[in-house]
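Dear colleague,

Thank you for sharing your sequence with our group. We've completed the structure prediction you requested, and as agreed, I am returning the results in plain text so they can be pasted directly into your records. Please verify that the sequence below matches your submission; if there's any discrepancy, let me know and we will rerun it promptly.
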Amino acid sequence: MTRPTPSTTPPTTPPHLGTGGRCTLVGAGPGDPELLTLKALKAIQAATVLLVDDLVSDAIVAHASPTARIVYVGKRGGCKSTPQAFIEKLMLMAVNEGENVVRLKGGDPFIFGRGGEEVEHLRAAGVQVTVINGITAGLAGLTSLGAPLTHREHAHGVVFVTGHAKPGDAGTDWRQLAATARDAKLTLVIYMGVSGAATIEQELLTGLPSDTPVAVIQHASLPHQRHAITTLGDLHGTITREGLASPSVIVVGDVVRGVAAAAHPMEAPQQAVRRG
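Please find the predicted structure tokens below.
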């Protein structure tokens, strides 16, 4: 399926409210179409307009009605992206034209999906929005390796955090987070962290041991998923050697030890493991 590059010229004439359109933010999950919720599937099938993120697989978009208008509004770190303001204008314009709009997002709309921004924008314009959750990649990725994010003995909680700061934002205080994760026995799930892995590794090592196990999962849940099991002290080196890239999630914490033990019972977790 060819994905056209949308124009970034915003509509010049604001549409009028009250034409009976509606909008639903739908989480498409990590990529495997079988991980869609029934509610998400029904919303996709009923949509007359779908605004689709770059990370949503073609197999999921294929569930749309043949008569639906599909607009790809790609957003991926490090790549040319459709401006967020333009996406919000498209959503509002389609709703005001009476369309049944589905904003289709990879993972979950409210976990690093900018769903909160879009809901605020639409509500400010008088549009009510429905949100349908999806399985987030941080959960699906580690689950695919047979390990949990929390465990009564190894992790009392989990933190979802972005490794990609908004321009002008100082971003995550990794040193403080490392100390908190150590003291509270937390699993760290880092999204969009591959490009900043060297800094993340260096900063987390101020509070966590270098042998803390780490999993890096690329293309979680998809047939071409790849992963590596390593340690915090070799996080950046492993990503470089294995050629892992975006979209990937990085999971840091003792829950990952079970993955390494299952893959190589007699080896230390420093041994990288790959799956093609």
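Summary note from our side: Residues 168 and 255 are 34 Å apart (CA to CA).

Kind regards,
the structure core
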